[in-house]
TrEMBL record:
One of its GO terms (biological process) is translation. It comes from the Bacteria. One of its GO terms (molecular function) is structural constituent of ribosome. This is Uncharacterized protein. SUPFAM superfamilies: Tex N-terminal region-like. InterPro entries: Ribos_protein_bS1-like, Tex-like_central_region, Tex-like_dom_sf, Tex-like_HTH_dom_sf, Tex-like_N. PANTHER family: 30S RIBOSOMAL PROTEIN S1, S1 RNA-BINDING DOMAIN-CONTAINING PROTEIN 1. Residues 64-134 form the Tex-like protein N-terminal domain. Residues 183-276 form the Tex-like central region domain.
Length: 278
């Protein structure tokens, strides 16, 4: 089974607090919230990192406040539930026997709280690791530092980190070493440039360089991801001659559905069909 797009199995929960970072008098509040939730940031140069804020009073308060805002409950309710979860209590136990402690949080709220707590703590741990990695490379300037601190999702954090991530020697690096970067610059800066004036080797090198640039542009990748979610389609067709062998997947021989409407059971069926080369 061939795909016209790559399905996403696990849909990430959409972050709802991003609007606060860009609108009205919520900007200062949002900055305070994000900065409280992340590491007590290492200095740009010279000092040692101090570790995740998840282990500090400010970090815990920031995470608790953010979850409280998302759930529409009091921060004290979230703090009480977090203490119980950290103490080993399960969601069903807290929902049934500790309502008076959490201010009446129900099972659904507690499950969301537990999920978000786990996500935000992982996000902060990864943020600290990335900041330390870039700092170690001597490339952590103030603008990049702030970008990392304000990243609200794992995907955004990794998009920002990608250009600084240690990697093996790439085709783009080889092309730069061969002197093909000026060709890439000429082509991207002036769309009217005639590619026929360059050799096939130069064009291949320029292509590799531009592909890497685009892939490492965090804003572009974020916009494309959003575009994919909003307008992307997953399509599948049967491989020639596999109609009989793949009969159980007949529903997907000529199939197309928007990304944001695709249920998990269809994604799994599509993947099974592909594994069996139907």
């Amino acid at each position: 089974m061939d795909f016209g797009g790559t399905p996403v199995i696990h849909r990430a929960r959409r972050e709802r607090t991003a609007a606060a970072l860009t609108t009205g008098n919520r900007r200062g509040e949002a900055d305070e919230l994000v900065f409280a939730a992340v590491t007590t940031a290492p200095e740009i140069a010279g000092s040692e990192p101090t570790g995740p804020a998840a282990g500090t009073t400010a970090g815990i308060a920031g995470v608790n406040r953010r979850i409280a805002d998302e759930l529409g409950v009091r921060e004290t309710q979230v703090a009480a539930a977090v203490d119980l979860l950290d103490g080993g209590s399960t969601v069903p136990f807290i929902a049934r026997y500790r309502k008076e402690v959490t201010g009446g949080l129900d099972d659904a709220q507690l499950r969301t709280l537990e999920e978000r707590l786990h996500y935000l703590r992982e996000l902060d741990e990864r943020r600290v690791s990335i900041i330390e990695s870039i700092r170690g490379q001597g490339k952590l300037d103030e603008a990049l530092h702030r970008q990392l601190l304000l990243a609200e999702t794992k995907a955004r954090l990794e998009d920002i980190y990608l250009p600084y991530k240690p990697k093996r020697r790439t085709k783009a690096q080889i092309a730069r070493e061969a002197g093909h970067e000026p060709v890439a610059d000429a082509l991207i800066n002036d769309p009217t440039t005639d590619p026929a004036q360059y050799s096939a080797e130069q064009l291949d090198g320029a292509r590799a360089i531009l592909v890497e640039r685009f892939a490492e542009d965090a804003d572009l990748v974020g916009e494309l991801r959003e575009l994919m979610w909003n307008r992307g389609q997953v399509t599948s067709t049967v491989r020639p001659g596999k109609e009989e062998a793949g009969a159980k997947f007949a529903d997907y021989f000529e199939f197309s559905e928007p990304f944001d409407k695709l249920p998990s059971h269809r994604i799994l069926a599509l993947l099974r069909g592909r594994r069996r080369r139907c």
